[in-house]
Automatic annotation (TrEMBL):
Alphabetized UniProt keyword annotations: Iron, Metal-binding
GO MF, one annotated term: metal ion binding
Protein name: Hemerythrin
Family assignment from sequence similarity: Belongs to the hemerythrin family.
Domain Hemerythrin-like: 1-105
Coiled coil feature spans: none
Organism from which the protein derives: Ramlibacter agri
Lineage of the organism: Bacteria, Pseudomonadati, Pseudomonadota, Betaproteobacteria, Burkholderiales
Length: 132
């Protein structure tokens, strides 16, 4: 899960450097494909492990995929205007999603598999230092 999250962060960083409209469609295709792969894996894990709050988590994934598909369709028709704000919203949304929903899923899976809980590190707000 951490590797997939790092890959997504890299895509968002690339999107922040887009200079030309022609760069958006291929990058949005890559983002959309990544989101589908990422969310399909998590959705499968939630169903396979009977993760209790899976419906909320799966619904959030579906909403993001819907938006991604809509923005991609517009870009492929030549309208890239929504792309920067969509990517900015993904960048704003993702840390909270990962910190709360994905970390809960990881803890659930570890506890069910190994009988324990993973250690989760969070950055302190403002200084970038990690705290347990």
């Amino acid at each position: 899960m951490d590797k997939v999250h790092a890959e997504f962060d890299e895509l968002l960083q690339r999107a922040a450097t887009v200079q030309a409209a022609a760069e958006w469609p291929p990058l949005l295709r890559e983002i959309d494909a990544h989101l589908h792969q990422h969310f399909e894996a998590e959705d499968r894990w939630m169903r396979e492990t009977d993760f209790p709050p899976r419906d909320c988590h799966i619904d959030e994934h579906a909403a993001v995929l819907k938006s991604s598909g809509e923005v991609l369709a517009l870009a492929e028709q030549g309208n890239v205007n929504p792309a920067p704000s969509f990517v900015a919203e993904l960048a704003r949304w993702f840390p909270g999603h990962a910190d709360y929903l994905d970390s809960a899923l990881a803890a659930w899976m570890c506890k069910r598999t190994f009988g324990g809980k993973p250690v989760v590190l969070h950055r302190k707000k403002g200084d970038g230092a990690s705290a347990a």
